[in-house]
Amino acid sequence: MLDVLADVLQPYKEIVGTIAAIVTVGQMFSGSFICWDIYKQGNTRGIGIMPFLGGVVMSVLNLKFGYILRDDKMIQVNLFGLALNIIYCLVYFNYTQDKMKVWAQIGLAGAFSAALIAYAQMEDPKLVENRFGTIITAFMFYLIASPLFGLRDIIKNKSTEGMPFPIILSGSIVTFMWLLYGIILRNKFLLIQNLVAVVLCGSQLALFVIYPSKPKPSKEKKPKAKKAD
Asked: What family does this chain come from, according to its entry (predicted)?
């Protein structure tokens, strides 16, 4: 079945690859919509920093992976992504009221990144490409699935408030395009990686269809006026 689909899509290989690259760069700007929401409401209520911090960590890891592969394009794209996500983090930090908590999260992200970079430096050069690539894939799945960690609260409050819709929507488009490209290349690693990502993104988009982005205001009963004697 996949071989048939790969044969059908083969003439469009260059087009699909170009579109996948363009939407990947475009996805990096999705955080600007969240920053705009933060600016409009004047604080970070209902919005977490993890999408931005995750973007920083992912860019750092992919940057290292680019050096391992000696892929100039991968290095350039992730340098750009790293710069953007650092800007998003600075905007978030400027508007958050809980700066100590954010500092702790930044420290944790920095320590995690440093540990993995150190591992990549010490690993056997013959094994590092495959193993470090697997680690990056696992972390990518974690980032994509992270909005679902609050599923209980989403169902309880019947609201998707706090879920980063621009990032989820753009992520769905990006992973779908890379899924098509993986089919064309008949690359099982690329195919499985993006198939899982598409399923995760699709399940999150379904929540936006079911629940509103803002919780419904609770109906408070007005106190009855006392009758005059």
From this structure: Belongs to the SWEET sugar transporter family.
The model's pTM is 0.77
pLDDT score of 77 more than 90: no
Kindly write down the DSSP assignment for every residue of 25-67, as one continuous string: HHHTTTHHHHHHHHHHHTS-TT--SHHHHHHHHHHHHHHHHHH
Residue owning tokens 């690993």: 123
- Token pair, residue 217, equals 């205001």
Distances (CA, A) of 77 to 64, 113, 114, 200: 12, 18, 20, 24
Helix axes 31-41, 165-185, angle to 10 degrees: 180
For 94-104, write each residue's pLDDT tens digit: 999 999 999 99
CB 109 within 8 A of CB 55: no
